[in-house]
C-alpha cells in the first residue's frame, strides 16, 4: 500500500486508456474502472492527474529516501570516523599530556643545567680572571727574573772574578788555619812550659778575719802577713820563733772573694781548652772553706764565679766552639758517695767505674744540663738543700764530708772539628782537724778515720804524681778515686789552704800549713825552684805575644770565613729563589692547562645540552602543530555533526509532516 487508493493488485495487463471507450484503467492497481459520467470522467482525469503527481512524488520520495539513506549511511560513516577521530584525539591528548610532562621535566632539567652552567660560567669566569691576574703577576715576576738572570749573566765575569778572589781567600784562609794550628801548638807548648814552671798544682793560703766571738773571748791573731805579697806567711806561736811558709799566693783577711777568684780564673779557660781541673778548699772546720767555695748570696764564692765565667767565655767563643755544660753534685761521707741532685733517695750504692782510657764516672749519677748561670744557681741550691736534709746538724755533718761539685764540659771546635771532654771538680773538703784519740769514739771515730784516710790519700796521690811514681794510689779513697781523671797528666789543680788567725787554733793552723807546703813543695821540687825568673818573664812575654797574634789571626780567619759563608749563602739564596719561582710558574701553567681543559669540556657539554634543547623544542612545536591540526579537524567534525543533526531534524520534520 502506497497511496491508499488502490485496494487490490490487478493482473498484469496493458494499461487502460482512459476516455476512449468510457472506461479507464487504474494505473496503480491496473483495475479496469468504468467511466460513464462527466464527473466520473473529470474525476478520472483528476485521478490520473493525481496519480501522475503521486507517481512524481513517489519517485521524488524514492529519490529523497535514497538521498536520506545515503545521508544516513554518510552520517553513520561520519559518526564512525568521528568516533575514530575522537579516539585518536584522545590518544593524541594523552600523548600530548605525556609529552608535556616529559617536556616539563626536561624543561626543569634544562633550566637546572642552564642554571648550573650559568653558575659554573661565573665561577670559571672568576677563576679565569684570577688566573689571568696571576699570570700577569707571574709574567711580571718572570720579566723581573729574566732581568735578574740577565744581570746574573752579566755578573758572571764578576762572579768568576769573585770566585777567584774567594779561592784566593780560601787559600789564604787555609794558610791562616795552618798558621793558626801552628800557633795553637806553640801556644800549648808555651802554656805547658809556663804551667810546668808554675807547677801543675798551685797552692794559695787564705786566712779569715778573727770572728767577733774570738775577739770577745780575747783570742789573739798569730798570723804575720808582712811577706804576704811575696807569698810568705808567718805563724807566731807563743814564745817560739816565727815559722814561715811559702805559697803561690797569700790572701789576708782583707782580700775579698773577687780577689781570691782572680787566681782561679785562668783555670776556667783551661777547662774550656780541654784540660781537667781540680780546685780544693782544705783546712780546719770554721776556717772558711765553704765561704771560699760557695760564699753567700751577696758575696759569691769560687763555685758560682767559675761557672759564671765558663758561660761568659763560652758565649764569647760561640762562633768558633760550641760548649755543652752539665753539673753533678756529690757528697763523700764515710767513704760513701751520695748524689745530692737525686730526686729520690736510692738504696743502690753508687760506685766509680772506668768508662774508658782515663775516664771515670759514677753510673746512675744525675748530670744536670745547664744552659745559663741561673740554672746553675738552682742546681747549686738543690745540692745544698739536699746536703742539709741528710743530717740533723748541718754544720757538723758538712764538716765531716767532702762536698764535690763536678762540671762536665763537652766542646766542639767549629773550625777544625776537634771535640774535647773535660771536667772541673770544685771540692769543699771535710774539716782537716785532728781529733784527740781519747775524744773520738764510735761513729765520730769512724768519721775521723775516714776523713784522715782520704785527706792523707790525697797527699799521697799528689806525692806519687810529683815523684812520677809508676803506681799512683788513686783507689785508696773514694775522694782520690773520683778525682783520678783530674789529678795528674795534663790536669791542673789549685788548693786553697784555709787558716784561722786565732792563737786558739795555732796548732791546727800549723798542721794545715805543713800539709799544704808538703803538697806544694813536692810539686815544685828542688829543680823547679831554680827557675830563672828573667827567663820565666821572657817566656811569659812570648806567650802573651803569641796569644795576641793567635787572637788576631783567629779574628781575621773568622772574618774571612764569615765572608766566604756570606757569599756562598747569598749565591745559594738566589739560586733557591730562582728555582722556587720557576717551580711556581710551572705549577701555575699546569693549573691553567687543567682549567682550560675543564672549560672546554664544559663548553662541549653546554653545546650538547643546547642541541638537545633545540630538538626538544622542535618536537614540542611539531606536537603543538599536530594539536592545532587535530583541533581544526575536531572543529570540522563538529560542523559536520551539526549538518548531520540539521539533516536528521529535517528528516524528522519531513516524516512528521508526512512528506516522507
Ligand atoms: P768551714 O767551711 O771551713 O767550716 P765556713 O766557711 O763555714 O768554714 O766559715 C766559718 C765562718 O767564718 C762563717 O761564718 C763565715 O762566714 C766566716 N768566714 C770565713 N771566711 C771568711 C772571710 N774571708 N771573711 C769573712 N768571713 C769569713
Ligand atoms: Mg764548711
UniProtKB/TrEMBL annotation:
Taxonomy of the source species: Eukaryota, Viridiplantae, Streptophyta, Embryophyta, Tracheophyta
Task: Say if the entry is tagged with keyword Magnesium.
Answer: no
Q: Which keywords describe this protein according to UniProt? A: ATP-binding, Coiled coil, Microtubule, Motor protein, Nucleotide-binding
> Gene3D superfamilies per the record?
Kinesin motor domain
Detail which positions bind ATP.
283-290
Q: What GO biological process terms are annotated to this protein in UniProt?
A: microtubule-based movement
Q: Which organism is it from?
A: Aegilops tauschii subsp. strangulata
Q: Where is this region: Disordered?
A: 592-613
Q: How is this protein named in the record?
A: Kinesin-like protein
**Does the record bear Mitochondrion in its keywords?**
no
- Pfam family of the protein (one): Kinesin
Amino acid at each position: 500500500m502506497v497511496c491508499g487508493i488502490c485496494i487490490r493488485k490487478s493482473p498484469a495487463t496493458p494499461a487502460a486508456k482512459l476516455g476512449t471507450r468510457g472506461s479507464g484503467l487504474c494505473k496503480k492497481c491496473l483495475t479496469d474502472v468504468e467511466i460513464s459520467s462527466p464527473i466520473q470522467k473529470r474525476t478520472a482525469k483528476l485521478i490520473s492527474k493525481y496519480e501522475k503527481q503521486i507517481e512524481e512524488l513517489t519517485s521524488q520520495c524514492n529519490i529523497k529516501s535514497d538521498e536520506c539513506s545515503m545521508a544516513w549511511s554518510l552520517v553513520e560513516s561520519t559518526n564512525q570516523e568521528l568516533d575514530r577521530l575522537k579516539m585518536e584525539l584522545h590518544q593524541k591528548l594523552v600523548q600530548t599530556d605525556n609529552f608535556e610532562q616529559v617536556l616539563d621535566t626536561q624543561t626543569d632539567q634544562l633550566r637546572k643545567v642552564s642554571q648550573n652552567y650559568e653558575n659554573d660560567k661565573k665561577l670559571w669566569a672568576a677563576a679565569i680572571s684570577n688566573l689571568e691576574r696571576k699570570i700577569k703577576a707571574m709574567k711580571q715576576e718572570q720579566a723581573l727574573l729574566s732581568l735578574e738572570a740577565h744581570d746574573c749573566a752579566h755578573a758572571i765575569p764578576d762572579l768568576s772574578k769573585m770566585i777567584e778572589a774567594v779561592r784566593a781567600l780560601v787559600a789564604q784562609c787555609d794558610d791562616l788555619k795552618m798558621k793558626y794550628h801552628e800557633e795553637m801548638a806553640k801556644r800549648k807548648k808555651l802554656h805547658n812550659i809556663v804551667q810546668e814552671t808554675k807547677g801543675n798544682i798551685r797552692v794559695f793560703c787564705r786566712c779569715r778575719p778573727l770572728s767577733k766571738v774570738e775577739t770577745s773571748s780575747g783570742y789573739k791573731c798569730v798570723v804575720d802577713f808582712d811577706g804576704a805579697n811575696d807569698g810568705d806567711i808567718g805563724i807566731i806561736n807563743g814564745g817560739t820563733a816565727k815559722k814561715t811558709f811559702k805559697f803561690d799566693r797569700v790572701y789576708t783577711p782583707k782580700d775579698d772573694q773577687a780577689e781570691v777568684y782572680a787566681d782561679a780564673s785562668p783555670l776556667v779557660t783551661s777547662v774550656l781548652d780541654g784540660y781537667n781541673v781540680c780546685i780544693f778548699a782544705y783546712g780546719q772546720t770554721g776556717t772558711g772553706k765553704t765561704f771560699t767555695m760557695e760564699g753567700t748570696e751577696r758575696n759569691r764564692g769560687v763555685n758560682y764565679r767559675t761557672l759564671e765565667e765558663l758561660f761568659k767565655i763560652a758565649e764569647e767563643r760561640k762562633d768558633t766552639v760550641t760548649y755543652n755544660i752539665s753539673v753533678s753534685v756529690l757528697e763523700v761521707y764515710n767513704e760513701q758517695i751520695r748524689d745530692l741532685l737525686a730526686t729520690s733517695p736510692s738504696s743502690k750504692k753508687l760506685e766509680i767505674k772506668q768508662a774508658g782510657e782515663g775516664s771515670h764516672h759514677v753510673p746512675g749519677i744525675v748530670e744536670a744540663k745547664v744552659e745559663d748561670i741561673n740554672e746553675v744557681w738552682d742546681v747549686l741550691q738543690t745540692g745544698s738543700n739536699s746536703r742539709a736534709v741528710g743530717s740533723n746538724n748541718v754544720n757538723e755533718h758538712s764538716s765531716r764530708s767532702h762536698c764535690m761539685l763536678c762540671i762536665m764540659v763537652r766542646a766542639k771546635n767549629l773550625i777544625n772539628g776537634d771535640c774535647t771532654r773535660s771536667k772541673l771538680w770544685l771540692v769543699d773538703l771535710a774539716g782537716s782537724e785532728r781529733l784527740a784519740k781519747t775524744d773520738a769514739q764510735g761513729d765520730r771515730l769512724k768519721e775521723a778515720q775516714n776523713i784522715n784516710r782520704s785527706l792523707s790519700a790525697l797527699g799521697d796521690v799528689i806525692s806519687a804524681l810529683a815523684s812520677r811514681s809508676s803506681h799512683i794510689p788513686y783507689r785508696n779513697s773514694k775522694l782520690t778515686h773520683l778525682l783520678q781523671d783530674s789529678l795528674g797528666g795534663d790536669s791542673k789543680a789549685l788548693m786553697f789552704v784555709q787558716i784561722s788567725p786565732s792563737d786558739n787554733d795555732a796548732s791546727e793552723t800549723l798542721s794545715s800549713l805543713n800539709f799544704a807546703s808538703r803538697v806544694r813543695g813536692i810539686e815544685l821540687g828542688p829543680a823547679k825552684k831554680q827557675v830563672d825568673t828573667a827567663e820565666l818573664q821572657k817566656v811569659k812575654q812570648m806567650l802573651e805575644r803569641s796569644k795576641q797574634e793567635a787572637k788576631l789571626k783567629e779574628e781575621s780567619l773568622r772574618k774571612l770565613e764569615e765572608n766566604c759563608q756570606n757569599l756562598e749563602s747569598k749565591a745559594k739564596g738566589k739560586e733557591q729563589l730562582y728555582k722556587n719561582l720557576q717551580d711556581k710558574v710551572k705549577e701555575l701553567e699546569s693549573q691553567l692547562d687543567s682549567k682550560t681543559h675543564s672549560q672546554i669540556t664544559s663548553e662541549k657539554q653546554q653545546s650538547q645540552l643546547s642541541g638537545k634543547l633545540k630538538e626538544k623544542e622542535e618536537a614540542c612545536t611539531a606536537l603543538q602543530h599536530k594539536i592545532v591540526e587535530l583541533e581544526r579537524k575536531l572543529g570540522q567534525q563538529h560542523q559536520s555533526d551539526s549538518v548531520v543533526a540539521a539533516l536528521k531534524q529535517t528528516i524528522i520534520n519531513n516524516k512528521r509532516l508526512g512528506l516522507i
